[in-house]
């Protein structure tokens, strides 16, 4: 798919990985709708990017991905102002395993991504006025391999991987010309990562924190630019469908697929 002239909707697009994806898409000539619940930062980002890439190429839609109503309105507004969408990126996500936070990890990461995926399938289908496109969902290496530090976060990401790959092999979805891929990075240098690495957001014991640090030292930390380059490849290359893309500083980028016949 040629990115130039296409319309992309990116959730969690004002910080970290999402911000990197937004800039990469705009630099490639796409129009971008940034969907995020941080309204103040969203307005400021919209202004900065409009100055850099043109005000007709970028909008900000305030939206909490846990709200069906707000999310549907973000899709409606994106289509009304920019057209499309042809590219939907469900990237908004959080960590947190405490008694008061763990359910919101499922609500935001898993249910928010499923909500965005269902809306993308609706808006990209012919029946919904669309003409196909590509959906990229953000999971994590924590959804592929078990880890003792973040079981809820890992479960939310495993759910994203499974749903994305299951939809990607659906004949109905394939008939509508929609590709779905899922990204599973290990650690990436973003505000979320720095918050964890500084210990500010830590909910684990000090021995667990030491184990996380040792793990980070072992597999390394990718830059947002490295993850954004892998993302662009998933969007542009029409042969990439049902792909699970794993990436880590130490091991680089690995692509795999599984089909319904694999047992
Ligand atoms: N940084 C890392 O090491 C890794 C991050 N990831 C995943 O990548 C995604 C992005 O993470 P980062 O860029 O590191 O985080 P970040 O904290 O820098 O950015 C997350 C963005 O999502 C937005 N957001 C959070 N909850 C939202 C909600 N309910 N509705 C709308 N927007 C919401 C935030 O306002 C923020 O703009 C997440 O899904 C995360 O789980 C995956 C692997 C590694
Ligand atoms: C444990 C394997 C993680 C693989 C990559 C990933 O998704 C990392 C995400 C973290 C991000 O860098 C910042 C976070 O809060 C995410 C989850 C962190 C899990 C470990 C938490 C340990 C702690 O609370 O100190």
UniProtKB/TrEMBL annotation:
<comment type="similarity">
    <text>Belongs to the short-chain dehydrogenases/reductases (SDR) family.</text>
</comment>
<dbReference type="InterPro" id="IPR036291">
    <property type="entry name" value="NAD(P)-bd_dom_sf"/>
</dbReference>
<protein>
    <recommendedName>
        <fullName>15-hydroxyprostaglandin dehydrogenase [NAD(+)]</fullName>
        <ecNumber>1.1.1.141</ecNumber>
        <ecNumber>1.1.1.232</ecNumber>
    </recommendedName>
</protein>
<dbReference type="InterPro" id="IPR002347">
    <property type="entry name" value="SDR_fam"/>
</dbReference>
<comment type="function">
    <text>Catalyzes the NAD-dependent dehydrogenation (oxidation) of a broad array of hydroxylated polyunsaturated fatty acids (mainly eicosanoids and docosanoids, including prostaglandins, lipoxins and resolvins), yielding their corresponding keto (oxo) metabolites. Decreases the levels of the pro-proliferative prostaglandins such as prostaglandin E2 (whose activity is increased in cancer because of an increase in the expression of cyclooxygenase 2) and generates oxo-fatty acid products that can profoundly influence cell function by abrogating pro-inflammatory cytokine expression.</text>
</comment>
<keyword id="KW-0560">Oxidoreductase</keyword>
<dbReference type="Pfam" id="PF00106">
    <property type="entry name" value="adh_short"/>
</dbReference>
């Amino acid at each position: 798919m040629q990115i130039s002239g296409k319309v992309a909707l990116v959730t969690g697009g004002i910080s970290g990985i999402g911000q990197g994806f937004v800039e990469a898409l705009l630099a490639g000539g796409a129009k971008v709708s940034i969907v995020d619940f941080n309204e103040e930062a969203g307005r400021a980002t919209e202004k900065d990017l409009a100055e850099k890439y043109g005000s007709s190429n970028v909008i900000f839609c305030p939206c909490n991905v846990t709200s069906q109503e707000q999310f549907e309105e973000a899709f409606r507004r994106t289509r009304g102002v920019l057209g499309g969408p042809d590219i939907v990126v469900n990237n908004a996500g959080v960590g947190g395993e405490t008694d008061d936070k763990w359910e919101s990890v499922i609500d935001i990461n898993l249910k928010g991504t499923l909500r965005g995926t269902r809306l993308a399938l609706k808006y990209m289908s012919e029946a919904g006025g669309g003409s196909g496109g590509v959906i990229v969902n953000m999971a994590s290496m924590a959804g592929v391999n078990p880890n003792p530090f973040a079981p809820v976060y890992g479960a939310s990401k495993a759910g994203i991987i499974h749903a994305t790959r299951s939809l990607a092999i659906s004949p109905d979805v394939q008939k509508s010309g929609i590709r779905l891929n899922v990204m599973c990075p290990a650690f990436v240098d973003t505000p979320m990562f720095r918050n964890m690495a500084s210990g500010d957001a830590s909910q684990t014991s000090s021995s667990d924190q030491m184990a996380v640090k040792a793990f980070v030292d072992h597999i390394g930390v990718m830059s947002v630019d490295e993850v954004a380059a892998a993302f662009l490849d998933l969007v542009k290359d029409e042969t990439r469908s049902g792909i699970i893309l794993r990436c880590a500083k130490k091991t680089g980028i690995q692509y795999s697929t599984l089909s319904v016949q694999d047992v």
